[in-house]
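ping. complex inputs:
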Amino acid sequence: MDTKDLTAWIREFAGLVAQHKDELTALDSAIGDGDHGVNMDRGLTAVVAALEAEPPDSPSALFKKVGMTLISKVGGASGPLYGTAFLRMAAAADSVLDGAGFAKVLRSGLDGVVARGKAQPGDKTMVDALGPAVDALDAALASGAGTKAALQAAADAAEQGREATIPLVARKGRASYLGERSAGHPDPGATSVTLLMQAAASTLGS
Ligand code: ADP
Ligand code: MG
Ligand code: MG
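pong. complex structure:
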């Protein structure tokens, strides 16, 4: 996968977030302040505009632009968290990525989210979708799956991780202010991460 392929991934993610904006916002209304869909859509609309204005010439430049734009345009927790993920991905990306290279990049992104937000698995955050996705991607590639199938396994794991956040009590972010009342709802950030991985499965690999 080259810069063009990875740009298509980001554009597809932006499209899915725009399509699911109201759903993300409704989820955040239940356990947060009701802005996750609006936040992510604003940020990704700016990302797509920035990529069109000046197409990046390497995966690293692409991820850097995505990260910087999300940090500057998205208020709230998700901007710095997604932004840090993409900046770490930029630092880890070679000029062309195979499946294993993409898995390495994605794990760097996860490490960035954890370093920045200090969430543990089970805290009911985006980590609960991204962590299982990265693990499933590694496991599928190690068992000999092709990149496309491995990315589909990663997207499925993200979705399962998102479902698994429903009964959890939030221990990080705004939802944690609700205590026990945060249980019974999926985490909005885990939901947007699922869209990120679904976009990867549909646009990357062959
Ligand atoms: P805000 O909560 O500031 O309004 P958003 O609504 O855009 O920001 O994003 C909320 C999402 O951010 C949550 O659903 C959760 O997945 C994620 N989040 C919040 N705090 C953390 C954290 N410390 N680590 C990882 N993810 C977090
Ligand atoms: Mg919010
Ligand atoms: Mg907010």
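The longest helix spans residues 99-117.
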